[in-house]
Amino acid sequence: MQRRLSVLLLVLALAAGAGLSSAEEPSIREYRVPAGSHPHDVAPAPDGSVWYTAQNAGALGRLDPATGSTRHISLGPGSSPHGVIVGPDGAPWVTDSGRNAIIRVDPSTEKISVHPLPKERGGANLNTAAFDGRGILWFTGQNGVYGRLDPRTGRIDVFDAPGGRGPYGMAAAPDGSIYYASLAGNHVARIDTATGAATVIDPPTSRQGARRVWSDSKGRIWVSEWKAGKVGAYIPAPGNGGNGASRGIRPGPTRSTWTRRTGSG
Q1: How many domains in the chain?
Q2: pLDDT digits over 108-135, tens only?
Q3: Are residues 86 and 131 in the same domain?
Q4: Among candidates 58, 94, 92, 93, which has minimal Cα distance to 76?
Q5: Which domain holds residue 228?
Q6: 224-258, pLDDT tens digit by residue?
Q7: 12 phi/psi in degrees, rounded to 5
């Protein structure tokens, strides 16, 4: 587990321009992180370093690919960080399931800012996050919720997910719209960022667990279907933008469509 994620750290760092020129052949290099870190998610920083969540250590790690050195920033008592992304402000934002909070770390001072979920929303099991086109951070909680944080005001809104438990992976499309994959619910949903409402995209995935979701540069939504050995692609209909109503998401000849590719495992 640790070995695989070390490789992933390098690949993401190179994608950020930290190692290879376009004329060089790609290569793989592994980096060791402190024992017991259990690194989970990674995010390349604008300066070429790489952030990673050290889940068992309750910390955010920072890797310098040039030297291989790492540094851990404690996220506080009870921390168990899951996801990390770099926001529009250049700072890492962490979904911390242990503290049931969204945490921002200042990349210069390493000061942490904690944004806890409302008390009535305890135990959300926070997973991943993404920023929409308006600079609002959206997040998933595998225990049946998703929500948003306005970094300008600190306000957090939490919504019950359609189908209950399962929201896991999350991604923003180029138009600023937000999608998430429901691991237990076996579907992908699209969030209307204006109202907060989530609409399940029909048809659902293959009943084998939609775990992670990503958008490519053309706005196609790719989802890994856990256990099924498949990758699904959702192609939104023209005009089905980030802040409008969830229109045109049912598949049809001139509307949104699903395609699938079979993988090896």
Answers
A1: 2
A2: 999 999 999 999 999 999 999 999 999 9
A3: no
A4: 58
A5: 127-143+153-265
A6: 876 666 777 777 866 544 333 223 233 322 233 44
A7: -70, -35
